[in-house]
Amino acid sequence: MTPRVALLATAAVVIGIVLYAGREALGPFIVGLLIVYLLAPPIERLARIGAPRPLAILSVYAVTILAVVEGLNLMLRPLVDQVRLFATDLPGLVDQLRAQLERLGAVYRGLELPPAIRDAVDEWLAKLAAGDIGFDPAVLLPVLRATTGFVGTVFAFLIIPVWAFYLLKDRPSLVRGFQASVPPEWRADIDAVIAIVGRVFSSWIRGQVILGLAVGVATFAGLLLLGAIVDPVFSRFAVLLAVIAGLLELLPIIGPIIAAIPAILIAATAGVEAAGAAFLLYLAIQQIENNVLVPKIQGDATDLHPSAVMLALVVGGAVAGLLGAILALPVTAAARDVYRHLFARLSVPVEPGSPEPGSEEPGSEPSRGDREASAEPTPPPEGGPAALPASPAPLGSAAPGTGFSTRAAGPTASD
């Protein structure tokens, strides 16, 4: 290992230890990076046409804040009204739900069930009717701790716009500084990895915004339709339930299921038919989303097996809470594509008699076959290591799911 590689590895380990030690405070900054990622394209366009970067950033900030304020003005008042209405109607809704359960109990008593099953169900129903369902107030302690942490997080979020401003303003110089801090022969692969991660996160962010809006609007329209033809209870809470459905789109697979539960419970106060209608509405929306919208919007950038998605959600939630569960999908998909790219880069066949890639002595020249495989190689300087071409030469096919060239560049002198 050369001194430069040792220095780079040591710096990476130290940074990793520091970030792990302060992981509980990183949530706002991760959100800030997502904001930077979203705002960077229009700022770069304005900068390319000659606008000063600070002015471009302030202009995009102003437009974004205006859009958010107008959106809140449009949605916040009916949302607050429906939350207040829900809180007011909650006792009546509970009574209606109990009445529906009593109707189902009459049907249940007419069923012929084995005695053991009937006794178990009767015992549970008796506890439910008495309000004794084994609720332990201690389960509220995590909620209280989370609320306290949320207050501190709000203050941390207040500095994020300023932090993001400086990142956006100095982005070109920061990129140049990062490139200068890594060995030149690594830059092509590092740029490729950054491009892969950028493609995955770009597809994920764009998809989540569009899917959240689409699911929220579809849920709102469907609830209004059910309110007109099934029961008015759907229309009374349409905005509240639509916002819940749109926000929970951030959690794949699990989020839509959680979003459907309050809608079905509210619908159940109007009868079994209304609950069935709510279930069918949410099922239809999810089928349209999974089979029509997701393939067109996100493609295969974040296409993971459902079992892998569930595992990533659980692990991400255990590691970093709600934010970890939300980011688990793009992080896992990006790691998959980076692995495929690096595996393809390391799997280039070596000609018989030629040294393995990276095994040459410093100052040695690449073999003839490797020079021919390289794209316009640059002659090595006198006594120095062989120079890499500007980018890796294509292997003839891209690594599956990455969209990036997988041909290794000609071997270079080991760092």
Record field, number of beta strands = 0
Could you tell me the radius of gyration in angstroms?
A: 28 Å
The class by helix and strand makeup works out as mainly alpha
Shape: elongated
Order of helices and strands: HHHHHHHHHHHHHH
Number of helices: 14
Rounded mean pLDDT score: 74
Helix content: over 70%
Largest sheet entry: none
Strand portion, in percent?
under 5%
Spell out the blueprint of helices and strands.
Elements: H1 3-21, H2 27-48, H3 53-109, H4 115-130, H5 141-158, H6 160-169, H7 171-180, H8 187-229, H9 233-236, H10 238-247, H11 254-268, H12 272-297, H13 306-346, H14 368-373
The gist of it:
With 415 residues, this protein is mainly α. Among the domains are: 23-109 and 152-174, no CATH class; 190-347 and 388-406, no CATH class. It has helices at residues 3-21, 27-48, 53-109, 115-130, 141-158, 160-169, 171-180, 187-229, 233-236, 238-247, 254-268, 272-297, 306-346, 368-373.
Tag the structure with descriptive keywords.
single chain, 415 residues, mainly alpha, 14 helices, elongated, disordered C terminus
Detailed description of the structure:
With 415 residues, the protein is an all-alpha fold. Among the domains are: 23-109 and 152-174, no CATH class; 190-347 and 388-406, no CATH class. It is 72% helix and 0% strand. It is built from 14 helices and no strands. The protein starts with a helix and ends in a 42-residue tail after the last helix. The model is unreliable at 132-137 and 355-415 (pLDDT under 50).
